Amino acid sequence: MMKPPSEKPESIELPAEWRSNLNDRLAHTIDETVALSGLGRTTIFAAIKRGELQARKYDRRTTVLDEDLRSFLRSLPVVRPAA
Predict the structure, then answer these.
(1) Residue 42 and residue 33: Cα distance in Å, rounded?
(2) pLDDT of residue 10
(3) How many CB atoms lie within 10 A of CB 13?
(4) Beta bridge partners of 65
(5) pLDDT of residue 51 exceeding 90
(6) How far apart are CA 20 and CA 43, in angstroms?
(7) 3 in helix, strand or coil?
(8) Nearest alpha carbon to residue 23 among 66, 61, 75
(9) Domains of the chain from N-terminus onward
(10) pTM (2 d.p.)
């Protein structure tokens, strides 16, 4: 009998000491990007793959510039109230 795949939570909670410094950072890790945006890891990586969110690589580390994250979030469609 096969075990069901373990589910990873989409949202990531950052330690309090990290959260206070995030607004001053030039770039964010993927986990920080997930926590700041409120979007899931899969969604963030899909947006990067589609070219909607620009990411940068240094060695094995993937980072997202703060300005790119803010621009990506501003480019998302605005929810209109139902008529």
Answers:
(1) 12
(2) 57
(3) 10
(4) 27
(5) yes
(6) 24
(7) coil
(8) 66
(9) 22-75 (1.10.1660.10)
(10) 0.72
